[in-house]
Write a structure and sequence with these properties.
single chain, alpha/beta, 331 residues, ten-stranded mixed beta sheet, 40% helix
């Protein structure tokens, strides 16, 4: 009897040892990329205007990259926004960029230089379209913008792309039916009610420039209704990346009267080119996910970056290095 029990005990010990070795092996496999010498050199990341979420996210990401890859210099390039960022990556002016999915699609559909070389690294977070007016404005709908002084964003921005689409679907010609200006989030809030009747912005929630305005002098958001978004969807092309949603009442406390605002959202992507070093891209992808909580403390929308959704970089295929990372963490 004692011999039988002894054999059972030995089998249990053996199974435990095997399980331990397997667990240790998985742990070593998980840590293996970090035991390699980090990539070095210089890369450029194209962001956005200085007052926007892209720029702030880029600054915080650069800090995380420098901690994990101390011999990699990350140069940030400010820009008008998504449309310029896509072009910069496609033409080699930048190695990585943050951009909205509709801007990527528009660039690809126009068959512009380098469009076939664009690749996805990670889906980051959603931009919300925010149509802003003074608190006492008589503008209640997009249609009410006719004849008004409206900021539609810089020419190469994602805001300009979205604003023009929204205006047209509402029956307004952006060049003929409004008095357009190129103000963005850096200048638009300061001119609201002082030369501007309204301005469009597309960004993560909340955007500092709008939060400051809501706290100082107040603002109101004009709804972009689900029927307008449905009309945009029927056009297909770049507009298929828009989805109807609500801006939560908590985004800008006190400015929404504790009610959500109907609007639309579009996903933001971190992009690169097919010829970017796979090892560098794998490291960068890992750090984007690893630094989510730290960056999210200062950029609230970054808290939504998640490995389960980051892999969906439509309309772009994943870069080989990013795909390697996602496979390594697949459950």
């Amino acid at each position: 009897m004692s011999n039988a029990l002894s054999r059972i005990d030995r089998r249990r010990v053996l199974r435990g040892a095997v399980a331990g070795f397997v667990a240790l092996g998985l742990l070593l496999w998980w840590l293996a990329p970090w035991s390699e010498e980090p990539p070095r050199g210089t890369v450029t990341l194209s962001t956005g205007t200085r007052a926007g979420v892209y720029q702030k996210y880029g600054e915080l990401l650069r800090t995380s990259l420098s901690r994990n890859m101390p011999d990699l210099e990350v140069r940030l390039l400010t820009s008008d926004g998504s449309q310029e960022n896509v072009r910069r990556v496609a033409t080699g002016e930048a190695d990585f960029a943050i951009t909205a999915a509709d801007a990527v699609e528009a660039y690809r559909l126009s068959d512009r230089h380098g469009a076939d070389r664009l690749r996805g690294v990670a889906r980051l977070y959603d931009d919300y379209v925010q149509l802003v007016v003074p608190p006492g404005s008589d503008i209640r709908s997009v249609a009410d913008l006719r004849g008004k002084r409206v900021a539609i964003g810089p020419p190469k921005s994602g805001v300009r792309l979205i604003a023009n689409q929204v205006l047209r679907v509402a029956g307004i010609d952006p060049e003929q039916d409004i008095r357009p200006s190129a103000d963005g989030i850096d200048t638009g809030p300061g001119r609201l009610g002082r030369g501007l009747d309204a301005f469009f912005w597309s960004g993560g929630l909340p955007t500092d420039g709008l939060r400051t305005l809501s706290e100082d002098s107040g603002l109101r958001f004009v709804p972009i209704t689900a029927d307008l978004v449905a009309q945009l969807h029927r056009q297909s092309g770049a507009t298929r990346h828009y989805r109807a949603t609500n801006m939560p009442e908590s985004a800008y406390p006190g400015s929404q009267h504790d009610t959500p605002v109907p609007t639309m959202a579009v996903s933001n992507l971190l992009i690169t080119r097919a010829d970017t070093d796979p090892r560098l891209t794998e490291w960068l992808t890992r750090i984007v996910l690893k630094s989510r909580d730290r960056i999210g403390k200062e950029v609230h929308s970054a808290q939504l970056v998640d490995v389960r959704t980051a892999i969906y970089t439509e309309p772009l295929r994943l870069h080989d290095g990013a795909r390697r990372y996602y496979r390594s963490v697949k459950p």
